[in-house]
Description:
- The protein is α+β, with helices and mostly antiparallel strands.
- The chain has two domains: 8-84, P-loop containing nucleotide triphosphate hydrolases (Rossmann fold), CATH 3.40.50.300; 109-176, Alpha-Beta Plaits (2-Layer Sandwich).
- Helix content is 39%, strand content 24%.
- The protein has helices at 20-32, 50-65, 77-83, 101-107, 122-130, 152-165, 181-189; strands at 38-42, 69-73, 87-91, 94-99, 113-119, 135-141, 144-149, 171-175.
- Strand 1 (38-42), helix 2 and strand 2 (69-73) form a beta-alpha-beta unit.
- The radius of gyration is 22 Å and the shape is elongated.
Amino acid sequence: ALETVDLLDAANRKIGAYSKGMRQRVKLAQAIVHDPQVLILDEPLSGMDPIGRRKTIRLIKDWAREGRSVIVSSHILHEIEAMTSNILLINNGRILAEGNVHQIRDLIDTHPHTVFVRAADPRALARRFLERDDVISVRFEEGAVVIQTAAPDGFYSRLTELAATGEAGEIAEVTSPDDNLQAVFQYLVK
Length: 190
């Protein structure tokens, strides 16, 4: 188990001399030493450095792929997104939503969806969307347009058409700050 969590070289040192991240990895080793089929982990990445976090996320994914049930409790939602696609959001003992991020996001489609589009000609792109009823607002940032829409599926469909035809110039990047667990959770607890 110590080898699995990269602590074999430190096995002879006193745990009191370990960093917080190393102590966290000792706890993981304790959890897996008996090869359990169900793992329940509370904030497993707490105190770890970025490399330790990445390795631990990989381990958690590997355990799940091996057929183990892995339950992770965490307040750091982007870390949960990195570990799994199956999510259960709980607030004050109440289940708010379950599924993957996109399924959960679909539950709140009446909530405006913000999309950031970096394009060669953001103003030309914005003009293509201003006439649409589902567009709530348009604003500009350097080299980009930020569009708020009430119908994300229709918006993305139209954006794909524009990108394919080149009508609005080259589209370099499309991201959405609303398409993550933190944004969904914030909306659901309101």
